[in-house]
Amino acid sequence: MTHELQSIIEQAREWQQQGHKMVLASVVALEGSSYRKPGVRMLLNAQGQTLGAVSGGCVEKEVQRQAQSVFEDGAPKIMTYDGRLRLGCEGVLYLLLEPFEVSSELYQAFTEALVQRIPLSIQSAYQKEFGPMPEAGTTLIIADKSFPFDARTRKTENSLCFTQSLPPLFRLLIIGAEHDAVQLCKAAAQIGWEVTVVAPPDEQKTIDFFCGAKQLITPLIDQLDPQLLDSQTAVVLMTHSYNKDVQYLTALKNTYPAYFGLLGPQKRREQLIDRLLELDPEVELAFIDQLRGPAGLNIGAASAAEIAVSILAEILAVTRAQNPIALKDKEGAIHA
Hints:
336 residues; alpha/beta; Rossmann fold; 16 strands; 31% helix
């Protein structure tokens, strides 16, 4: 996921400035099933510190042990982890362990891509053979320009290639500035989403009020930029003001984000839509149909923090095209 790669690159840059050697462990192939899938990564430094995970916790110690040779000789290697033999799981993981360095060029290009919401791509060359593999390595591709994680990476014709496409960071646009918006912001940031809070101009709030927020903006309602809402953005409208909600809906009437939720009961949603149609009878039905109100899944949520969990759960279900059910009732693999 993009936010996991962002965390790794930011931490690597900090460790690099402290003079630490680093190794990046990436799951590049899987036979069978596993808790996590190819594309997950774990960063290690020579002092024993780590960031991220490649499993639910059962593989990491072996990764740390196997990484020691990479710290010593700088040669990439492939390691395997057979969960069938060790844990009774059903999968065999193939992990690429390689030296990791964040060049100034890579960091600048990556940071700009995040700001401009440019999709990224990662390619890892490897072989399904245990042991040292000098030709193995990973390259980050941004706008057709390649940035190897290790300057010595050389892909050969005999290499397999794991390719991962990374969309822009998933963004949550919270329109509202009350206590429940604070809780939703905090919870969304915890799962790695980029949170933008839109506060009505008359609110006396600063970004410090919203733990985890990337930014706080206070535009006049009719000047809210619709371009903030793309296919990687979810919107929750929660101003606690009927009139303001109507105005925001009017300002955003031509937008189609990944999710659009309304706080409040079903009756309030109907009243908002009726008023919107009175003001603009030409509003497209597709816009109205996407409005989910009350936002959230029925999990018995009562407090603001619980309601935040409910809303985030529905956003995940909608954006990943899932029908929420108890996992005990799901047939097949439980992880997407």
